[in-house]
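Reference record
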Amino acid sequence: MEAQNESRRPVAATPTWAMLRTLGGIALLSGLLVALVYQVTLPVIAENQRVLTEKAVFRVLPGAALKRDFVLTEQGGLAPVGAGADGEHVYGGYDAAGNLVGVAFTGVAVGYAGPIRVMFAYDPECRCLNGSKVLSSNETPGFGDKLDFDPVFLKNFEALDARLDAEGRALANPIVTVKHGTKRQPWEIDGISGATISSKAMGRAANAAAQRAVPAIERDLAWLKQQN
């Protein structure tokens, strides 16, 4: 009988404060672990990004033996990285003799499955984009990946017109993607059949990037050529 009464006694409830203290401790420990992992992996992520960027620069500027990093300033020009200026990066490529062979910069636009981030090469001699490399994309395999591998599509970036207007503040003709087989102008990108959205995103990325970077490059071109 005594055993039965003992079994029927209510179990003492855990004090609310004790529960909150335990949960708070777990949350604090979890937060510390996340912060620790972030701090440990941050240098690795940064180094991987640096290597990826460097490979892309030399991919779109095949004649370059070394690169110099610059930023687009609020004044519409260029400044060396680390000189107190802060802004979007552009990369000057120089050959072994120290001659400027081109400038690389990145553009982003939303495609079919998300943002497409691309590095483009600009040649001051022809005032054109003459190279591209997709840095990140979630486009449909077999279609969207043609942006980076289809030889016919890549011909668009052998001499894609990026001349400036008379004032030197914008492209004379915005870069646009047109329906496959209808390209008539040197500033047009011949799209890929079956990947229209991805092709148009590539055109928007190229136009936006060139509209930002080319005026600054041309403004400071003489100075840029001496930064070897």
In short: The radius of gyration is 27 Å. The chain has a mean pLDDT of 86. Residues 60 and 68 are 15 Å apart (CA to CA). DSSP finds six helices and nine strands in the chain.
